[in-house]
Amino acid sequence: MPKAILFDIDGTLVDSNNFHVLAWAEVLRAAGHEFRLATIHAQIGKGADNFVRALLPDATADEAEALGKAHGKVFARDYMHRLKPFPDARELLERCHNEGLTVMLASSANKRELERHLDVLDARAIVDGWTSADDVDCSKPCPDIYEAAARKAGVAPEDALAVGDSPYDVEAATSAGIRIVAVRSGLFPDNRLEGAIALYDNVAELLERFEESPLSRA
Question: What is the pTM of this model?
Answer without folding.
Answer: 0.95
